[in-house]
Amino acid sequence: MTTETIVIVGAGQAGGWAAQTLRSEGFAGRVVLIGDEPHRPYERPPLSKAVLSGDAHADTTHLLKPEAFDALGIDWRPNVGATFIDRAAKQLRLTRGEPVAYDKLILCNGGRARRLTIPGADLPGVFTLRSIEDAAALGAALSAGKRLLVVGGGWIGLEVAATARKKGLDVTVVEAMGRLCERTVPPEISDYLLQLHTAHGVDVRLGTGIERLAQSAQGGLMASFGDGSELACDAVLIGVGLVPNDELAREAGLACDGGVLVDSQCRSSDPDILAAGDVAAWHCEWAGRRMRLESWQNAQEQGIAAARAALGTAVNHQPLPWFWSDQYDVNLQIFGMPAPAHRVVLRGDQSAGSFVMFFLDGDKVVAALGPNSARDLRFARRLIERRTSVDAAQLADLQVPLSKL
């Protein structure tokens, strides 16, 4: 029987899948799962949607039922943080308890919501959304007739805006950049999202940032913007991105650059330390650059890959990036990494609410996205992964089934 110990820092989705995978791959040694939250491993996407709206209980986000989690036979340490990695001694120091020795260490400690440094950012009624507790606190403030200000027109901000509108709140979204989700989608999809939210009554303000928050005489909050305008509101959601929790790795001397640098086998600059999920940065072949992939898919798949690599299995973590977002009655999915240099081919009518945009490099589809087009996007994924040569006219022709391509 092996006496090897594998320690996982971070009990979120990546850490949870790493722990499950160690057992499913037959590892009989000691698994220590360190988590700074009180919860068993859980998924975060529902926090901005079903959990926030009250349509689902937070327990539904857990990866495993209690009995299945207990059956893993792991040493789970909730409400415990990691403070220092002693690489020479191969020990992990914790916020409480004795240091834990490891043979392999997997960093799955994710990231934290980026905060604003403006005056009033820490006032009551100002929220971020990253944890179950965050969703509970924000959800309690979302009462019909209230006024919500969403700072940030990215995915989290727009999903919260949609949830709040469905609950009957007046919603304003302010985005400093010139269009919604500018960093991740082409202008056509930014325009689609803008039309979607304005059609549902959201006041979207682009090209201006928030400069100050203050308590108003009426008991709410007053927001001041860069264009000189002001807005009275009852609650504010700050959704301006994620900061990777790579400080632990940096202090240990691991190579980091906007996250813990890892190779396609999830190995850091120390071969006995691996990383997965939101904290890990690696060269993504599909994007042609180094990146962190903040997605449900990557948290799961990279957590699995890191666990297998820790056991000595040869892995090559290069999944086709996949992202999805639910807003109102729209499910928007993205496969691959669209870039301005790609040729765009439209299949369907943008005004119909269901279409697919293909992004071509030569005669190869390298990315595809669209709302309410799950079936077509499944075929698009195959075209991308198989690097199939296609005819652009056939892609655009609704009379030609994608399955034939």
What does this structure look like?
The protein folds into three domains: 5-112 and 242-310, FAD/NAD(P)-binding domain (3-Layer(bba) Sandwich), CATH 3.50.50.60; 126-238, 3-Layer(bba) Sandwich (FAD/NAD(P)-binding domain), CATH 3.50.50; 329-404, Enolase-like, domain 1 (2-Layer Sandwich), CATH 3.30.390. Helices cover 23% and strands 29% of the residues. The protein has ten helices and 26 strands. The chain has helices at 13-24, 50-53, 66-71, 132-141, 155-166, 187-199, 247-251, 296-310, 374-386, 392-396, and strands spanning 5-9, 30-34, 75-77, 82-86, 91-94, 100-101, 104-107, 111-113, 126-127, 147-151, 170-175, 203-206, 210-215, 221-225, 230-233, 235-238, 242-244, 260-261, 273-275, 280-284, 289-291, 322-327, 330-336, 343-349, 354-361, 364-371. The protein has a five-stranded parallel beta sheet, with helices on one face. The chain has a five-stranded parallel beta sheet with strand order 9-16-10-11-12, covered by helices on one side.
CATH homologous superfamily assignment of the largest domain: FAD/NAD(P)-binding domain
Count of the domains: 3
Distance between the termini: 52 Å
* SS-based class: alpha/beta
Average pLDDT metric:
95
* CATH structural fold name of the largest domain: FAD/NAD(P)-binding domain
Low-pLDDT ranges: none
CATH architecture of the largest domain, by name, is 3-Layer(bba) Sandwich
Brief description of this entry?
The chain has 405 residues and is of the alpha/beta class. Helix content is 23%, strand content 29%. Strands 3-2-1-7-19 form a 5-stranded parallel beta sheet, covered by helices on one side. Strands 9-16-10-11-12 form a 5-stranded parallel beta sheet, with helices on one face. A 5-stranded antiparallel beta sheet has the order 22-23-26-25-24.
